[in-house]
Amino acid sequence: MENTPQNPSEDRHSHPWKRYLTYMKWYALIMLGISLILAALGYSGAGWPGVLNGLTWGLMMGIFGLPILGLLLSVSIWSGYAHRWGEYNYKKQLEGDPDKKKEENQRD
């Protein structure tokens, strides 16, 4: 049975620290998955020393690789927004503020 908050308008993701914990849970699960896959590959190739080596490589990839991947995803998502915002400001400088033009056209 799912725990419902006493205040129904309060969302469980409304607090930043709860959202942060959710992200950390997914980060840990992804790191565990990568480590287990590499451990299985290491076991098939070299036995138990391969498992230890696979777990080590999985943790290193998780610690160093996933933040870089998150940064690249963030840049790719926000670059579209920055492009549209820059285009709007460029047109605003070149042609003037569209809101002011509408007000001037309504006065005429």
Q: What's this model, at a glance?
A:
The chain is 82% helix and 0% strand. It contains three helices and no strands.
Our count of domains comes out at 1
State the helical fraction: over 70%
Main sheet overview: none
Uncertain spans, ≥5 residues at pLDDT below 50? none
Q: Figure out the total of helices.
A: 3
Kindly provide the radius of gyration, computed on alpha-carbon positions and rounded to a whole number of angstroms: 25 Å
Please indicate the percent range of residues in DSSP E strands (runs of 2 or more). under 5%
Structural class: mainly alpha
Task: Compute the number of strand runs.
Answer: 0
Mean pLDDT: 81
Using the alpha-carbon principal axes, give the shape: elongated
Listing every helix as H and every strand as E from the N terminus to the C terminus, the arrangement reads: HHH
Distance between the terminal alpha carbons, to the nearest Å? 65 Å
